[in-house]
Write a structure and sequence with these properties.
Layout: E1 5-6, E2 11-12, E3 17-18, E4 23-24, E5 29-30, E6 35-36, E7 41-42, E8 47-48, E9 53-54, E10 59-62, E11 82-83, E12 88-89, E13 94-96, E14 99-101, E15 106-107, E16 112-113, E17 117-119, E18 124-125, E19 130-131, E20 135-137, E21 142-143, E22 148-149, E23 154-155, E24 160-161, E25 166-167, E26 187-188, E27 193-194, E28 199-200, E29 205-206, E30 211-212, E31 217-218, E32 226-229, E33 234-238
Parallel strand pairs: 1-4, 2-5, 3-6, 4-7, 5-8, 6-9, 7-10, 8-11, 9-12, 10-13, 11-14, 12-15, 13-16, 14-17, 15-18, 16-19, 17-20, 18-21, 19-22, 20-23, 21-24, 23-26, 24-27, 25-28, 26-29, 27-30, 28-31, 30-32
Antiparallel strand pairs: 32-33
Length: 252
């Protein structure tokens, strides 16, 4: 019995293997040497590069749902979902249509990447991470378990975000029509680091090579190369010289 549903317009590369109960939609392109697990759904028009691993029960290219009162989900014709070569996508992950994933990205189990999101090469999106729509994540970033990146946020290269960090984009906390004019995510600049369970309020900028301590609540912009701590977060000292990004022996 054939347990796979593969549209006749789909293209599957040489030496790619498909698990049981896989569903592949119209005009999907899958490169060579890929491994697709069991119960994976790949929606219409998705383009996957070479040597990609997709684990069981993952969904790629999903169309977003729109609630009647959603502030950030828009009615639009989204571009296709693209995943570049050498990526690993974990079990139960959901990657929406309109996302663009760079080379050698790892998206771990149960993570969600929404529409209109780009993720740069070599970045790690940890277990249970949620990246909301209209976000940009740079190269060589690391978002650890259960991080929440709110819509309309921008993370530059080499950003590190520790587990359970939360970001927000609505200073009106869901009330009044005025809030629809002021949605703004967070900006985390090159090499900045965020500690465990930190909270970053809407529109705040974490400047380059700064460090937000564990449990801090960021209510104002964080200066470059400074450590902030507390509720609300305040500058406590400069980042040690040996920890600065310019002093790390890492590839460009």
């Amino acid at each position: 019995m054939n347990t796979q549903i593969i549209d006749t317009t789909a293209s599957i590369g040489e030496s790619t293997t498909l698990g049981e109960f896989v569903v592949i939609g119209e005009n999907v392109v899958i490169g060579k040497d890929c491994i697709v697990g069991h119960h994976v759904v790949i929606h219409d028009d998705t383009v996957l590069g070479d040597n990609i691993r997709i684990d069981d029960h993952t969904v790629i290219g999903k169309e977003p749902m729109r609630a009647a009162n959603s502030a950030v989900t828009k009615d639009q014709r989204l571009p296709l979902c693209k995943i570049a070569d050498d990526c690993i996508i974990g079990t139960g992950a959901i990657i929406y249509r309109g996302s663009d994933i760079g080379r050698r990205v790892l998206i771990a189990d149960l993570a969600t990447v929404r529409e209109n999101v780009t993720i740069g090469e070599y970045t790690i999106i940890g277990r249970g991470v949620a990246v909301e729509n209209f976000c940009t994540i740079g190269r060589y970033c690391k978002l650890e378990t259960n991080v929440y990146i709110t819509a309309y946020s921008k993370l530059a290269d080499r950003v590190f975000v520790a587990p359970c960090t939360a970001t927000s984009n609505d200073n009106f906390v869901g009330r009044t029509e005025e809030r629809f004019k002021h949605f703004k995510g967070v900006t985390i600049e090159t090499g900045a680091r965020i500690g465990v369970n930190a909270v970053i309020l809407p529109g705040k900028t974490i400047e380059a090579d700064s460090l937000v301590a564990a449990g801090a609540v960021v209510t104002r912009d964080v200066p470059a190369q400074k450590i902030v701590a507390g509720m609300p977060a305040r500058v406590v000292r400069r980042v040690p010289e040996e920890q600065l990004l310019e002093n790390q022996d890492w590839p460009e």
